[in-house]
Amino acid sequence: MPVRLPSVEQISELGSGFGLVLSADEVAAFQQAFKGPLASYGRLEELVAPDLGPVAPRSPGYRPGAAENKYGAWYWKTEISTGAKGLLSGKKIAIKDNICVAGVPMMNGSALLEGYVPEFDATVVTRILEAGGTIAGKAACEDLCFSGASHTCASGVIRNPHNSAHSAGGSSGGSAALVAAGEVPMALGGDQGGSIRTPSSWCGVYGLKPTWGLVPTTGSMPISYSVDHCGPIGASVEDVARLLTVIAGHDGWDTRTISARTGDYMAALGQPPAGLRVGVLREGFGHSESDPAVNEKVRRAIASLARAGVESEEVSVPWHLDGPHVWSGIILEGAAEMMLKGYGVGNNIHGYYPLSMQDAFARGMGTRINDVSPTVKLVLMLGEYMHRNYHGRYHSKAQNLRVLLRRAYEQALEKYDALLMPTIPFTATAIPPPDAPLGTAIDTALNMQANTCSFDVSGHPAFTVPCGLVDGLPVGLMMVGRHFDETTLIRLASAIEAAGNWKKN
Description:
Layout: H1 8-17, H2 24-46, E1 74-80, E2 92-96, H3 123-130, E3 134-139, E4 159-160, E5 163-167, H4 173-180, E6 186-191, H5 197-203, E7 206-209, E8 229-234, H6 237-247, H7 265-268, E9 277-281, H8 292-307, E10 311-315, H9 323-340, H10 355-367, H11 374-390, H12 393-415, E11 418-422, H13 438-446, H14 454-458, E12 462-470, E13 473-480, H15 486-498
Parallel strand pairs: 2-3, 2-6, 9-10, 9-11
Antiparallel strand pairs: 1-3, 4-5, 6-8, 7-8, 7-12, 11-13, 12-13
Helix pairs in contact: 1-2, 4-5, 9-11, 9-12
């Protein structure tokens, strides 16, 4: 689309919006000054940019009906493969619906993107296909991923396979529910505040938020550059290790991954954890909403590590209680500016910009903004309020405080190989009814992140493993490790997995 020279009236309006007082002669002069830069935009329109072309032919698949979508966890079903032999041969993988798969509709749980079909594959999708995996479809997720529960998805509520009246967790609820239901052994999720770990914990599966910068997010819709993560969800520790092995490492696009240090995750499976030291995080158990029964299940799992030769003791990191406040300061304005006002891509980062998604999102913002969930509206308005009235100073201060939060965890991890705590202080909540008050719908979507969101800010890897049931609903134990030390977490998770059947605990 050619870029038009603005009229003098438009330039005058632009200036007035910034408080500029311009004379008629100045406005006319600025119109002439616009012509040189706009010529560059004309040339940009003519040039051909690189793309992320798909590596396998495919049909678009179909949207499953209720009969084959019992938990509302699928958005779209496909069967895409290269036939290659590799680490994922014979494995079916569900892709969270904020990750692009060429030729397959993508909605990111939101009316704003309904009808959009990307023409390229995300890096992680290409890597899965090249490793022999089969893309089984797109897993439903929360509206623009702005919810830790599972009732804001525009295609319908996502239900927990352990109790369909309860939340699957979010925002990667479809991914975790499909694994828990046995429909796929592994899935991709995204995590900006707990969105891999929350649904994995509540659905009783294994979910790993990798170190920030280990897995590229090229071709995925972001929320906020400094807290975006992509990672694996699996039915076993081995499934998580396999998928992480395939998707980790720099891709030439996502500059966050330049410093990525990959490990031998498969070799870590079953490696005895004897000699490791873990710190049981006091502040992870002490929330006002903490369920004593959840705490007891987590402590029982920690005791099983002791029997495997792991030394444990209580440790205190007071900054953990301020982590959610730092996270709020970063993500609210970060999401409003990058994802919403930035039309799903933002700017000023080195990386791949999916233009078709940007255009589709801009159309949706212009025509369907009233159809988004209350949580999206909250983030948009609150983020913009803070930006307009406080010129971004709290976002900036939170980014500065990030260093102190990270340092506090790192100091504890100098003594311990991992920090342990409940993933979520309570089990999956009931899905609110469609006519629930606005405040209830919002609170239920955002009330579970006390232990998870801090590690999106600090960037440390965090692995949730199922460790028991309370009233038939799963409990997760979260292990947090040093940057790029996912192998230690896999060793510990393997030991817990081998200790017994958590569904009987």
